[in-house]
Amino acid sequence: MELETRATSEVLIVSVGEARLDAAAAVRFKDALREAAEGGPPRVILDLSGVEFLDSSGLGAVVGAMKQLQPEQRLELAGLRGTVAKVFRLTRMDRVFRIHHTADDALAAEDAAVPQAHAH
Amino acid sequence: MRPCPRPMPTEATPRAPAAPTGPPRVRVIFQSDPMAVRAGLLSLRQGIGRLGIDGDLEGALELVLAEVLNNVVEHAYGAAARGLVDVRVGAVRGQIDCTVVDAGRPMPGGAMPPGTPPAPFPEPEGGFGWMIIRQLAQDLSYRREDGRNCLSFRLAGGLDASAA
Prior knowledge:
The complex is a heterodimer. By secondary structure, chain A is α/β, with parallel strands linked by helices. Chain A has helices at 26-37, 56-67, 82-90, 103-108, and strands at 3-7, 11-16, 20-21, 43-47, 53-54, 74-78, 98-100. Chain A has one domain (3-108): Transcription Regulator spoIIAA, CATH 3.30.750. Helices cover 32% and strands 23% of the residues of chain A. The N and C termini of chain A lie far apart (33 Å). By secondary structure, chain B is α+β, with helices and mostly antiparallel strands. Chain B has helices spanning 34-48, 55-77, 129-136, and strands at residues 25-31, 84-92, 95-102, 138-145, 148-155. Helix content of chain B is 28%, strand content 24%. A five-stranded antiparallel beta sheet of chain B has the order 1-2-3-5-4, with helices on one face. The interface between A and B is medium-sized, with 26 and 31 residues.
């Protein structure tokens, strides 16, 4: 599982270098994200702009990864494209995560605790 | 109700579109394991590219099929067993017809799950598959016939509930 990370003192950006987060990738992804975030800054931004396909297994892994962060850490998402965004919308998980258009938007955004509103 | 296609082949062989006449069709047969499902979806995507289906519908098909196939792998055959999955896709007037056949266990209670959303807390890590399938697919039908599961559905443009 290829995860690329860059960190400041406040934010860790984790970019997923795998085109498909499906049943074949879910467990490895969840483990890799836990390792990447361990002991890291409070905001963890998962950049999914490199992911072109995500199914409910991949979604479950993202939710699972969020739940295994340390108590002071929070998982936010960025760069959801096409079908990936659709899966979050259809399952209403877009209401659980703070979702940014891009990772740069996430960096520029203030550390607000309230999920952003979504236009439907 | 459409007839359940037969016969189930005895070996995993990707096939070219079957009949030279009639609407264009794509058929892929593969083993029930997650890597084979991934490869099967990718080869379907290549075949579907020739059916002239628009991108949104193609994305919806890939997603619905992924959910259906994951269920076949995890529940019909189960992690301990492997079997074949036979997927047929046809395109008629911009709509997609799809049939998935496997020889695994029947669905619980002989019926498709309702796809009700999982409880919101604690944040659910599963239970989304049928929620997705039910929102995207139309004319879902499931039959158990001669020891095989036969699931079929249709996808038409402009009916994505999430876009409402």
